[in-house]
Amino acid sequence: MSHENRFGFSGTVLPVTIAGVVVIGCGIVIGIGKPENTETEPELPILNFRKAAEDDAKPLTVKVGGQEITLDEEGLTNIDAEPTVGGRNDVITQLPVGESELESAFNRGSRYQCKIVGAGKPLMLSNFIAMPLPPGQKNTADKLPPLMRRMPALTVGLDIAPGDRGDLPTLSSRMILSYLDENYVSIQAQVLKDPATREIYLHPRPVAATAAYRGATVSAKCESAVLASIKNFRSLGLLVKPDTEPTPADLRTLVLLNRYEMASIGSNTQPKYELAFIRVSVDGEEPRLRAFVTSNNRTILHDMGDVNRPFASSGCDILASVFFTKYSHASLVPSESAVRKTRIGGQQYSIADLERYLNENGVEGDIWANMLDVIDALVAKKSAG
């Protein structure tokens, strides 16, 4: 089914004439979580996203910028003998809308929690690298190793409001504040390239790296206070239109879901869900990422624009003020947190205004059913200047 888009944007209203329009975003909030071990980076990209059989292969290494990186066992077992794209478990054709749907989708997304980049790794992979095929497979003209490039999509900063700083443990408060003041979280996408056709598409699993402000080029240690909450930032899969037999060109919109606890009255909290979309577009052969996030219970859409590296928390795409609700390790290390407030950058669009405009122009379905067309239009608007 073809969709004709003629979008012009002005203010918070989206003047469009389309057969489908959609917007979805994610008010991304990273809280503080329980200690977990980081995973070896990078994850081996795959051309067939379906779960491969268990493999006893030993880890391999690749060189990135002269540095040897060990590929983890999980990555090695994720390549199938017959590479294809878009396994059915890794694409979605419908977005969750209600709270119960969002909760169920979050629980199903545990397979694609954010993968953590260990300390001392390249903060990003600036060029595509060829990844080795599993043992026993050989490169042939019709079976080349996949190519992968890891690229930042969103930056998230954390702080603690002055009124909550007095509640931090005396012995560890300086360490906690220093860590949050000096580091941010980079939410990234694994961009893949078909080695034969050169087509660009996305891996369904996001990546998260912690980095120091002021131009760091390698990842920092992701402390236990942040790890578990990053893993509550999950992929729902790659969004495609219904009745589509996916090709690489269809697998360019990654949908993420973040669950966090928001402060209500006093020390009470409520679970909140926000969505994010990461879109890869291609300029010549150069991939470019663009993120769209929701906030205020998915009533506002933020077009985050160009990806920038922050030099302070004020420069992050999302800045969350958190307070800690539980500690471990002799009550010194934060293990759970809640959010006081968030600040999200980018150009804002009211979901209600967008929905109203769609209805007035005879578009079938609500805004969530037409997300891909809205993203297409926003990306096209940016490209046109």
Radius of gyration: 21 Å
Helix content: 10-25%
| Total helical elements | 7
Taking the alpha carbons of the first and last residues, their distance comes to 29 Å
**Class based on secondary structure composition and strand pairing:** alpha+beta
Instruction: Give the uncertain stretches in residue-range form.
Output: 1-86
Order of helices and strands: EEEEHEHEEEHHEEEHEEEEEEEEHH
Number of strands: 19
Q: What is the 3D shape?
A: globular
The biggest sheet, with number of strands, parallel, antiparallel or mixed sense and barrel status, is: 8 strands, mixed
**Arithmetic mean of pLDDT:** 76
Measured by DSSP, the beta-strand proportion falls in 25-35%
Tell me about this structure.
The chain is 15% helix and 33% strand. It contains 7 helices and 19 strands. The protein has helices spanning 73-76, 99-108, 162-165, 173-182, 224-230, 351-360, 371-384, and strands at 5-7, 16-18, 61-64, 67-70, 91-92, 115-116, 129-130, 147-159, 183-193, 200-202, 207-212, 233-239, 253-263, 269-283, 286-295, 300-303, 318-328, 333-344, 347-350. The chain is globular, with a radius of gyration of 21 Å. Mean pLDDT is 76; it is low at 1-86.
Topology:
Elements: E1 5-7, E2 16-18, E3 61-64, E4 67-70, H1 73-76, E5 91-92, H2 99-108, E6 115-116, E7 129-130, E8 147-159, H3 162-165, H4 173-182, E9 183-193, E10 200-202, E11 207-212, H5 224-230, E12 233-239, E13 253-263, E14 269-283, E15 286-295, E16 300-303, E17 318-328, E18 333-344, E19 347-350, H6 351-360, H7 371-384
Parallel strand pairs: 5-12, 6-11, 8-17
Antiparallel strand pairs: 1-2, 3-4, 7-8, 8-9, 9-10, 9-11, 12-13, 13-14, 14-15, 15-16, 16-19, 17-18
